[in-house]
Each structure stands twice: as structure tokens, then as C-alpha cells.
Design a protein that fits this description.
467 residues, alpha/beta, five-stranded parallel sheet, three-stranded antiparallel sheet
Amino acid sequence: MAAKVLEMPALDVEQELDTLANMEPYAYEGVRAEYVKKLKFRPKVLDAEYARRRAILKPEEKQACASGGQAIVCENVAPWDDPVNGARLLDDMSYFVRRVVVFQRDQDADTFALWILGTYCIDAFDIYSYFGVTAPKEGCGKSTLLEILMEFANRVIGGSSMSGPVVYRMIQLFKPTIVLDEMDGINKENNAELLRVFNAGHKRSGAVVYRCAGDDSSTPEAFNCFGPKAFGMIDKPGRTLLSRSIMIDLQRKTKDQKVEKFNLRTLPAGTADMILRIKRQCTRWAVDHASELGIHIPDTADLENREADNWTPLISIAALAGRNWPDRVRDAAKLPAQYEKLSDRDLLLQDIANIFFARKDDRITTATLVSDLLLQHEGSGRWHRMHRDRASDIDANDVSELLGPFGIGPRHLWFNPAGTPKGQEVLPGTKGRIQRRGYALSDLKPLFDRYLEPSALEEADIGPEPF
């Protein structure tokens, strides 16, 4: 007679995790190692799951982490019971934010409302713009606008200091809306990793960072960093972050401009209930329109490249919301040109185009080009003292390095000797044309056509040709 095999019951992971969550922290610590083996979880994953479930189960504890901090809680909001009128929902958010913030453009309040609703619809989008709030100095309402955003947006985690690893781990665990104020301080802190995570998280297909971390630091792990992000700062961000953002510029209000103070404790009765209602309605609208948003192709013919990418989700939301919102989002998208801090490479390309335009020649020696560059931007000295560490001006090597990424470099060209009238042909030879390293207009013209506006050309200051 064959021996009877006893079948062990299948392990119910959810039930085991719930059992752990009901344990006090000191009790969990005592069985942690046992459950790591039992559930085959890595310790850090089990810790994170315990913290998440415990925070939901016992929110009143404000559970402290091992380092003394407070565990992060990021909860979903229950959908509204009935179908939601999208236009009225956007109206409510736009109207409310106008009560407490003075905008320079009325359309900025509409942009705020559309972007907030988009945080609930993020699963339908492959690209989602960042919401940037800037001001020339303190006291312009920047932090207030971000505080309001944190009350309305989906699954918010906000603060004034975060590191790159913290951000991509939070995104991986919670899929939140990240809100970071005082972002101008990251340059002083040299937090390059945070900038890399922000810059990578704009487009879903490329929003992955790879790191070796945790208990087994030899095994690479992939972390998702795609999702809605909002930030506030004094002045403007760098070009890469700027190109991924829809910017709201605030100024200090005048004595005649009156707004309500935004404080949930002092706002009129029922405001907190109104905010919860709007969040629930955003959740319901996103659920009801998820499939439509996923296939909607808006008309972005009047917008270009990255600007079209940034506005596409908001234009789709406005189109499905209906009523006058398709017109309102088009008004909002006609943003004034943002002030851009031109990089050395951008400015060099513009200056070289202007120098060719002024010289009306098809080639220029490197020595002449460097000499002419030093005549530009006399007020700002852009090309003077370019190397502050050795107090030297721009040179031939600098020009070559800046143009290198475009695939352009100096080459040997034939030139008429100095003093030869324009248009006069001089034959190569000892007393004829001379050969020098320089740049040809035929090489650079495709770059000018691709990266510069024809209307941007202007007569540059030029000097004698230093043969």
C-alpha cells in the first residue's frame, strides 16, 4: 500500500502580510527574519510592505521608521458615486485657485485645473509635463500655489528636500504625484542625481534608472521614475527641465489685489469637504474616461515639438471635458516665450550665423572667427574670461569642442590673402590663395536652418581678418 503524501496548504501571502501589519513594531522586529525566509521576500521589500500596511491600518500612530522618521502614507481616494461633468469639475478647481492666488495670466488657473485632473489620468499618458511654478523673489505666492496643488492632486508626496534615490524609490513604491518646493536649492547642493531623475521621468518609455543597491548590491535593479511632478523655485530652471515643464510665472500682488489666505483651518466651513469632493470626482472622471484618453489624438498643429508633447494630455482632457474647455486650453497653451538661459553651444551657433551674415562670405578662418566672437556681447563678456579658473578667453579649441556634438569641426580651406577685393578670384600658389584652418558656410548652413529662426539673424560686430 503506497504511503499517503500529506499536502501542505498553499501559503496565503496577503493573509501573512496582514498578520504582520497587525503586530506592534517591536513584535514585527522579533519575527522579521523568520518571515523573510517564509515569504521569500528581501528584507527591504518586507519592511516597506509592513510600513505601508501598518500606516493604513493604524494611521493614528504616525509610525516612526528605524531612523526616527515618519512612514510615508499614500492612499487612493474612493471614486465619486455618480458620473461627473468634466467641465464643471474643471470650473470648480479653476475658480477656487483664483480665490487664493494672483496669477499674471487668467489662463494659468485653467492650466492648474487641467494639470491636476491629469494626475488622476496618468495611466492613460505616455508623456506628462511637469508643473513648474517660478517667481523672481519670495512673497509671490509660489509656495501657496504648490500647497493648494498638494491638496488637490492625486496621491501626493511633497516636501522641500528630496534626493534622486528617494524620488525614484517613492515612485516605484507609491506611484505618487511628486511635489518639490525650493528646487532652486538643488544646484547649490549639487544634487545632480535628482535632476537626472526629473529629466528622465518625463516620458514613460525612457523613464527607468538602473542602480545596484540593497542587500545584494551586485545585482542591478530597474526603478521607474515616470509620473507627475511639480516644483517651485526662484528664477527659471535649466533648459532640459524647462523643456519638460509647463511653467506658471508669479509676481508679488499689488496693494489693490486681494486674495483669501489659504489655510484649511481658517477657510470657510466646508472647504475641506469641497476638496475631498473634487478629489473623488477627479478619480471617477479618470476611471470613466481612461479608454478615451488612451486613444485620443488632439490637434497640436500650432505647437512645436516638446511644447506639443507637454500640452497633449491637457488638450485631450479639455476635449473630453467639453463645453468651453477646448477653447480655454488653447488660450492657455499660447504661452508667452519663456526666458531661456541659452547655453554656450546655443549662443555660439547664433553668433557664428550672425558673423557669416555680416561678413557675407562663404568661409572664415578659425582665427578670424575667434576674433569676431570676442567682439560680441561686450556688455556681458560672454566669450571673455570663459575659463574662470585660468582667466582666459574663448579660443580655437573651445569653438571646436562646442561645435563637436553637431558633427562640425575646422578643416583646411583656401582663402584669398588679406586686402583682396571681394569677388576677385586669386589662383592658389605662393603669391596666390593661402590655406588656413577654418569653417565653411556650407557645413554650418544645415545647422542654422535646423536650430535658428531666420528672423534671428542680425549684423554682428566684425573686425579685420587676422591672417
